[in-house]
Write a structure and sequence with these properties.
The structure is a single chain. By secondary structure, this protein is an alpha/beta fold. It is 43% helix and 13% strand. The chain is globular, with a radius of gyration of 20 Å.
Length: 372
Amino acid sequence: MNLSLHVTDRCNMDCGYCYYGTHGMKSASFETLKAAVDLSVARDKSTGLCFFGGEPLLEQPLIEELLDYTDHIKKNTGHLFNYKMTTNGTLLSEDFLKTARRYHMLIALSHDGLMTEGGRTYSNACNVTGEQIEMLLRYQPYAIVMSVVTPQSAPLFADSVHWLFERGFRHFITSPAYGVGITWDEVSLARLEQQYKELAQLYIQWTKTGEKFYFAPLEAKIASHTQGADYRRAKCHLGFDMLSVAPDGKLYPCTQFVGDEQYCMGDVFTGVDSVQQAQITAFSCSPKICEGCALEPRCVHTCGCANKLTTGKIDCVSPMQCAYEKMLIKTADEMAETLYRKRYRRFMQKHYDPNYAVISLLEDQLKLKGRI
């Protein structure tokens, strides 16, 4: 069972594109998080925990208390745990990174590079320094960096990815901003498309020089071609693959749904409402408007989270999302064709060697384990 634990609603930042809107002041209790773990242990043989927020490191002692509890379960029962955290990085410390290393916790840093204006809000007392980035990458060389692109910041998108690359990041997850107050028009979408073309050139350059990296948006579209039916089966199933646990213990199908009572699927104390879960999962399917589209097998039109943020309905795709998917597939295909013709080693390994995908971004980190 995979759980996204909303440790707290609180955040020490105020990013304009955040789908949380105005952050509340609620934090989970240890009893609530313990009940979430117990629910998973009773249901499955393994548990995936993602510490989320708000900013989860505002509740670092609570997180460490829960880690001790899961360690006790593991030692006594053999139950398997894996851990992740999404953080803005402002509160990262060497002590916590040592804890993360001890539990093999993967850190995903939310950082927009040069695209701070128009979206991400820092203050002098709340910023991610170069020293913190260097410290994170010293402990986790393949830590994920997650960036959000707004219509205003789009012209800096490619430069931002390159800036983050130069600072040592090699695993990139990027996405356009969605939700209230975010408007993508033809002009801003055209700018975004141009940025993806520039990123494709960077991708080609890094591949030529043998860099080991992962740029999620383009990798996924290449995989949608090379993996075919396997890719479609691996798509997220809303309300099934990972459940979000609100600070009060209520269960929701994903992070964007927390607090929306119509999508509540039970709670950690009484269990999952299987009827509600089945109804929500059933909605996470191909919308009728997409039937017959040649790109349908390669599109994320079934993402209930994106659909809810852009249209208010989990089974309705926005024109913006449709345009975005088309530009992404076109850019990825043109780039991949160039790389395939040249048979560049890194590209062929990444997308045509089934064993490479398992070890590619983790092998160096495993080699470094215990040497920091």
